[in-house]
Design a protein that fits this description.
Blueprint lengths: L21 E3 L2 E3 L3 E3 L11 H13 L4 E8 L12 E2 L6 H13 L3 E7 L15 E2 L3 E2 L7 E4 L2 H20 L4 E6 L5 H6 L14 H19 L4 E9 L12 H9 L5 E6 L2 H4 L12 H4 L10 E3 L6 H9 L5 E4 L1 H5 L3 H6 L14 H7 L33 E5 L3 H13 L2 E5 L7 H6 L10 H12 L3 E4 L6 H7 L3 E4 L3 E3 L20 E2 L1 H5 L13 E5 L4 H12 L4 E5 L14 H10 L3 E4 L1 E6 L4 E5 L5 E4 L3 E5 L2 E3 L2 H11 L8 E4 L9 H14 L22
Parallel strand pairs: 3-4, 3-14, 4-5, 4-6, 6-10, 7-9, 10-11, 11-12, 12-13, 13-14, 15-16, 15-18, 16-17, 18-29, 20-27, 21-22, 21-27, 22-23
Antiparallel strand pairs: 1-2, 8-9, 19-28, 24-25, 25-26
Helix pairs in contact: 1-2, 3-5, 5-6, 13-15, 13-21, 18-19
The structure holds adenosine-5'-diphosphate and iron/sulfur cluster.
The site of adenosine-5'-diphosphate (ADP) has 25 residues, from helix 13 and helix 14.
Length: about 700
């Protein structure tokens, strides 16, 4: 029998309102939990994995579970991104896997029909993208879209209608017309920024709304007797007067179409605004833009805002802001969020931390992953369930050294399996890097990685956690557990070795160099750094360099951020944060030196070189924060394995290294590494072949 946490508690009556059924046109949702459409990097390429990922949310209590964007026609596709496809009837069986899975668990399945327009360069089909007006692509890709003529519009309406019929035949209960995120053709028609037409589809708002209205009417006419017709509309672009605003045309569009769809799914545009990270937004951040919608329609309204607190959810419904609690990220981090509230286990919710690693996986065209939920994307291929795990194979005991994300997750999952598990960490409080990094500006939600796991460990009978416990090889031996897992983390290098420099940077021995570990140390005081300017050298390119520059600038220091890349924190393009990070640093007057590497340090200055020409410039800096590469903390592992190699430690059956101590990476990678170690503990693992199921496109020739 699989191991799960106790599920016998009763629901808090305060949350009853969240479990009321809500009618959406011809269908009824069993409660108010609604997984809005979201990308998962699996779509048409990995249909089994996608179906299992969505079905598990229905199992976890979500009343509605939607697909990602589902491309309706080959003339508008966004490959290599992996969205859903409903180009013709051959796509129906793959989509049926999803609808069957969702229905099996009592959920309604929704599909977001999309015609991407000029946002999709059609790299696969090689069709010319279409748009309301002639326009260059919105990326720097050398592509232009052509303006649609009346025949194109008639064709599009027919394609949308046909796709809706296919969607109904595939078993979908809710079918979307989609105008959002600055990513769909109906949106481009709505927007006066994109729509420069002079005919009845351009000009006045009524004309610009015409196509969207027709698509909704066509869909209702085609399948509205059986399926609910939902509309996804962005009501504000956060662009002020140059975009659609919630007190301007966003409001007017809702007023014009108020009773036409069966459900309004409203949000803000673009994706970086809609999926804003916790660094830049708080729970419920979309309310100021979307709250008006319910005053203009009698139809149910769903909205998002990274909702993880049941009290906030109840508040949204009671105050008449929303009828459905929409969620993408909270449903990824915890597919069982509704069931946990329903069974009085709200303290067991694995709350989304708002880091956007899930978004980043889609952006790098990889199957979805999540920092908080290591089973995300692994439901089908590895058979991992977010709440169930196979029982222990033996009564053996495990000592986990290190209470960061890797050690905590490993200990939690091992203890859940039934292994007698002890976690020891040298620090006075557990959490490793998340406990420290959560103190940086905007990252407080990241502590949820620790809080969820420490909360679970407290409830698990076979688990013990010890802080203030530095383990050396003698203590590990003395402790006498059957197995040892080392999750001892990593430290930032001080010598500048990284992407640019494969050897230490010269001159650093005589210069005040600090690392992120120094600055994150709770006893560190920025005032103890030499007075004068501080250089942050960022050859890491994720969040750390940028956020330390922000931290130092907010402490009143003059900061130079030096990066070999063309923009600060460049990898955060994938988490949709880069624009906000660079804006914030510029607003804080951080001096950004781009495309430059740190060349050498002098006595009271440093030299940087252009990464293209090598031309050197001197920067007046009195200290450097080195954000380049991390070194795994593996001394204990090396010592223990050396003793084993010498014939010692015979009672210890296995020693494993996991997380950043194995190879420093993201927090998501550390959690995954910890979880995987626990899942595979005591199991026979295939290493000559992929240890997971694959989806092989053998069905070719069509
Ligand atoms: P990861 O991301 O892999 O979980 P972290 O750096 O977040 O790594 O956490 C590593 C944790 O291991 C830190 O809290 C650190 O204090 C702890 N640690 C490292 N070495 C030892 C040791 N020898 N004994 C006990 N705890 C240790
Ligand atoms: Fe939330 Fe981060 Fe998981 Fe995405 S990856 S669902 S933002 S915790």
């Amino acid at each position: 029998m699989a191991q799960t946490m106790n599920e016998t508690m009763t629901r808090n009556p305060h949350y009853d309102i969240l479990f009321e059924p809500v009618k959406i046109g011809p269908v009824t949702a069993r409660n108010r939990f609604y997984q809005v459409p979201h990308c998962a990097g699996m779509g048409h390429r990995y249909p089994f994995a996608n179906a299992a990922h969505r079905a598990i949310k229905a199992e976890g209590g979500w009343a509605v579970v939607c697909t990602e964007e589902s491309e309706i026609h080959h003339s508008s596709e966004i490959s290599p991104a992996t969205e859903s496809r409903i180009w013709d009837e051959k796509d129906i069986p793959a989509l049926q896997l999803l609808t069957d899975g969702v229905h099996q668990h009592g959920g309604l399945a929704g599909i977001e029909l999309v015609y991407i327009g000029y946002h999709g360069p059609n790299r696969y089909s090689r069709e010319i993208p279409m748009a309301p007006s002639h326009t260059v692509a919105d990326s720097y890709e050398p592509i232009q879209a052509r303006a649609m003529n009346k025949k194109d519009i008639r064709n599009l309406r027919r394609w949308h209608r046909q796709a809706a019929i296919r969607a109904r035949d595939a078993g979908f209960d809710i079918i979307y017309a989609y105008a959002g995120h600055d990513m769909s053709l109906p949106w481009h028609f709505l927007s006066k920024r994109h729509n420069l037409r002079m005919d009845e589809y351009g000009g006045s708002l009524e004309n610009r709304v015409r196509l969207f209205r027709e698509l909704i009417e066509d869909t209702k006419d085609a399948v509205g007797d059986k399926c609910a017709i939902a509309v996804r509309l962005a009501v504000d672009e956060l662009l002020g007067d140059s975009g659609i605003t919630s007190d301007g045309e966003g409001r007017d569009i809702i007023a014009m179409l108020a009773e036409l769809p069966d459900l309004w799914d409203v949000n803000i545009s673009n994706w970086a605004n809609d999926s804003m990270t916790s660094r830049f937004s708080t729970e419920g951040f979309q309310e100021p833009y979307t709250a008006f919608v319910k005053s203009l329609t009698t139809k149910p309204v769903v909205g998002v805002g990274r909702f993880t607190s049941p009290d906030t959810m109840v508040d949204q419904v009671r105050r008449g802001v929303l009828d459905f609690i929409g969620a993408a990220r909270p449903s990824i981090a915890d597919p069982f969020l509704p069931n946990k509230i329903e069974s009085g286990r709200e303290n067991d919710i694995r709350e989304c931390i708002g880091c956007n690693i899930c978004v980043a996986s889609d952006n790098v065209v990889a199957p979805i992953r999540c920092t908080q939920n290591p089973t995300t994307g692994e439901e089908w291929r590895r058979g991992w369930h977010p709440e169930k795990i196979q029982p222990a194979r033996s009564k053996e005991s495990v000592l986990v050294v290190g209470g960061g994300p890797a050690g905590l997750e490993c200990a939690r999952a091992l203890a859940l399996r039934g292994y007698q598990t002890t976690l020891a960490d040298s620090r006075s409080s557990i959490g490793g890097r998340v406990a420290l990094e959560a103190r940086l500006p905007g990252l407080s939600n990241w502590a949820r990685v620790r809080d969820y796991r420490s909360g679970q460990l407290e409830q698990l009978a076979g688990a013990e956690v010890y802080a203030n416990s530095t383990m050396d090889a003698d203590l590990v031996e003395e402790f006498g557990s059957d197995h040892v897992v080392l999750a001892t983390g990593s430290h930032w290098r001080r010598d500048g070795k990284g992407r640019q420099h494969k050897q230490p940077i010269p001159g650093l021995d005589y210069f005040p160099v600090f690392t992120p570990d120094d600055l994150l140390n709770p006893s560190f005081n920025i005032d103890d750094m030499p007075s004068g300017n501080i250089a942050v050298y960022d050859d890491d390119h994720y969040y750390m360099g940028g956020i330390l520059a922000e931290h130092l600038a907010k402490a009143g220091r003059t900061v130079y951020l030096i990066t070999p890349a063309s923009e600060v924190s460049t990898w955060t393009q994938h988490t949709l944060e880069q624009g906000r990070i660079q804006t914030r640093l510029l607003e804080l007057d951080v001096h950004i030196l781009q495309q430059r590497r740190l060349e050498r340090a002098g006595s009271a200055s440093i030299e940087t070189a252009c990464v293209y020409t090598g031309r050197v410039e001197t920067v007046d800096c009195q200290s450097i924060v080195m954000v380049t590469e991390r070194a795994p903390e593996r001394e204990l592992y090396d010592e223990l394995t050396a003793r084993q190699d010498a014939g010692g430690l015979q009672k210890i059956l296995s020693i494993q290294l996991i997380g950043d101590a194995l190879a420093p990476g993201t927090i998501a990678a550390a959690v995954y590494g910890g979880h995987r170690c626990a899942r595979e503990f005591g199991e026979e693992i295939e290493i000559d072949k992929a240890p997971f199921k694959r989806e092989i496109p053998w069905f070719s020739g069509h």
